[in-house]
Amino acid sequence: MTTPQQNIQGFTLIELIMVMVLVGILAVAVIPRFADRKTFDARGFYEQSIEMLRYAQKTAIAQRREVFVNITASTICLTYAADAACSGGNNVLNPADQQSFVKTAPAGVSFSAALSFSFTALGRPTPNNAYLVNISGDGVTRSITVERETGYVH
């Protein structure tokens, strides 16, 4: 007479220890990155700035008029007239909320230098130069390039 085999389920001690080791590695290496909001703020502002520049170019092409990009140490804005202060009534409207398209950098994030240029109705930057926009924050400098002739933003 044979006894039926019991189906034993569970984890071995080695599997449990390996899971604990992996959780420990993640806790040391990954979690501190999520704790520092400045990293996310800097990257988010960089992405918003790229999208604003792309929107400026597309708006200039779609509306067949010049769109100016005005950058100060902490602000980027889009206008229909050369207005570095972004104070006039010629601001491009943000399609999301129909307010002036002006973004202010979060604390600890800034542009490397003031810059003003425009996109023509053909989407070219004027003056016809390649532009490099540097955004510093969280100990990292991220660069945005606007290509001459095509106005491609990357």
Taken in chain order, the helices and strands follow as HHHEEEEEEEE
Briefly note the CATH topology name. minor pseudopilin epsh fold
Strand-residue fraction? Answer: 15-25%
Provide a count of the helices.
Answer: 3
- Described by the principal axes of the CA atoms, the overall outline is elongated
Overall strand count: 8
Mean pLDDT over all positions = 89
Largest sheet: 5 strands, antiparallel
In total, how many domains does the architecture comprise?
Answer: 1
What is the alpha-carbon Rg in Å?
25 Å
Identify the CATH architecture.
Answer: 3-Layer(bab) Sandwich
Percentage of residues assigned to helices: 25-40%
Q: Uncertain spans, ≥5 residues at pLDDT below 50?
A: none
C-alpha termini separation: 77 Å
CATH class: Alpha Beta
Task: Describe the model.
This protein has helices at 13-29, 31-35, 37-63, and strands spanning 67-71, 75-79, 102-104, 109-111, 115-119, 125-126, 131-137, 140-146. The chain has 154 residues and is of the alpha+beta class. The radius of gyration is 25 Å and the shape is elongated. The model has no long low-confidence stretch (mean pLDDT 89).
Which features would summarize this protein structure in a list?
alpha+beta; three-stranded antiparallel β-sheet
What is the secondary structure topology, with strand pairs?
Layout: H1 13-29, H2 31-35, H3 37-63, E1 67-71, E2 75-79, E3 102-104, E4 109-111, E5 115-119, E6 125-126, E7 131-137, E8 140-146
Antiparallel strand pairs: 1-2, 1-5, 2-3, 4-7, 5-6, 7-8
